[in-house]
Amino acid sequence: MRDSDYTTRRLQTCDTNAWETFLSHRLDIADLIVEQVTAEQVETRRLRFIIKLAGHSDPITMIGKQTTTLEARFYRHLSAQLQTVAPRCWFSSADTQSGWIIIDDVPHDRVPTTWLGGDTEDVIRQLARLHTTFWDQGAHFSQHDWLPNMIGVEETWLQTRRRQWLQEQAHFYDRQSLASAHAIETAGVLAPTLVQAVAGLHTMQAMDGWADVLDMRHMQAAADLLDDPVPIFEPLRRLPVTLLHGYPGIYNWRVSLFDECHLVDWQDVVVGPAVVDLIVFLETFAALSHFQVDRTLTPAEETLIDSYILQLSAEMGSNDEIEFDARAVRRAIPAARCLYILFHWFPRFEKWFHWSPEHVFAGRHLDPFEQEDILKSASDPITHLQPYLANTFDRFLNAYHQL
User: Fold this and answer.
1) Which residues contact 194 (CB under 8 A, 6 or more apart)?
2) pLDDT per residue over 328-346, tens digit each?
3) In sequence order, what are the beta bridge partners of 40?
4) pLDDT tens-digit series, residues 94-150
5) To the nearest whole percent, how much of the chain has pLDDT over 90?
6) How far apart are alpha carbons 267 and 86 in whole angstroms?
7) Any idea what the Cα angle at residue 273 is, between residues 268 and 279, rounded to 5°?
8) Rounded Cα distance, 235 and 244, in Å
9) Beta bridge mates, 243
10) How does residue 327 score in pLDDT terms, banded at 50, 70 and 90?
11) What angle (nearest 5°) sits at the alpha carbon of residue 242, between those of residues 241 and 247?
12) CA 398 to chain centre
């Protein structure tokens, strides 16, 4: 057993001696004494450790999380450069299959449904700070070969991972025949998701669309882009790359009473153009705006885009070594929106509907993991999403025409 595995196991089992040694080293306090450590289950694969220290009236809390190798490596190698964005990491262990981390238990005082306009502006500016920290640092990323490039076109991946993935899915049906060779090659590392999106499109076409959500206009636009995704990928690949959270949706932000904003759940961290993260936030924020009772408290999307780009400009304006083209970022927003909506929603349509479309609109409730994909709602049936998804696909069609 590796030393890190042994340490991980002792920390997970609330071994006070292990925690005392661990914290004494991390805090550089030789006479620190840990009196008690308890753990409570916060959610699946996540524990809150409550640590009572001698001489301190209040315990300290930390979060232990079973996670992906990517997230564990992010916290080990990169999170220290994002001290105001990512929670502080105390411990990180990773192997080829999974990882385990201990991070700060950051305050979560204001959930998104209670955000005011100022909270949203703070979050969008914090997202911009994340992106400017690693703006156009391709050479730096090359030192971390574990970090994938979401819009990359690595030949080795095209020859191996794509074939492996398609073989794994063969027990469902021959997915490979659904997408053209040109589309798969253009999509690069996103080829598996593109194939899933094509399968979802075929499912919706077989259902003759979705009343008041998807009609022939939307499906034809989706078919055009999935058959030839160059109009999506070309403007994105022209932009400088940065570090992306991967899914900075509204429910991955933690806003405190003191206006601090932290971004959690980095298990999908990747390299790519910043506008991709921006669109994920905007699309999930649109969902919040749609379901929030008092919509006067939510800023308009264009206001958030302006705030984001102004923050990028302010962060990079004083650095002569960085070239920032605000117009190029704005021009790539339609491509990023089409990418997100195609690759986020159509694979889900295939997963939800292909097995029994006749039951879909009879109030079927979403599985828990599907709820998290959408709004982390309680138990709304799919039909309750129709107004929100109708707006989503209207935005998609508008973005398609702007490409």
Assistant:
1) 179, 183, 184, 187, 226, 229, 343
2) 999 999 999 999 999 999 9
3) 48
4) 988 899 999 999 999 998 888 877 899 999 999 999 999 999 998 889 899 899 999
5) 63
6) 12
7) 75
8) 17
9) 271
10) very high
11) 110
12) 24
Q: CB 239: neighbour CB atoms within 10 A?
A: 21
3-state secondary structure of 42: strand
d(CA 401, CA 334): 9
Tell me what pLDDT residue 334 has: 98
pTM, entire model: 0.87
Backbone angles phi, psi at 149, to 5 degrees: -105, 115
Tokens 């060779």 sit on residue: 181
Tokens describing residue 261: 């904003």
- Mode of pairing for the β-strands spanning 89-94 and 253-255: unpaired
Among 171-175, 244-248, 321-325, whose mean pLDDT is lowest?
Answer: 171-175
For 401, residues 6+ apart whose C-beta sits below 8 A from its C-beta are none
Q: What are phi and psi of 15, to 5 degrees?
A: -70, 115
CB 166, CB 199: distance < 8 Å: no
Residue type, 254: R
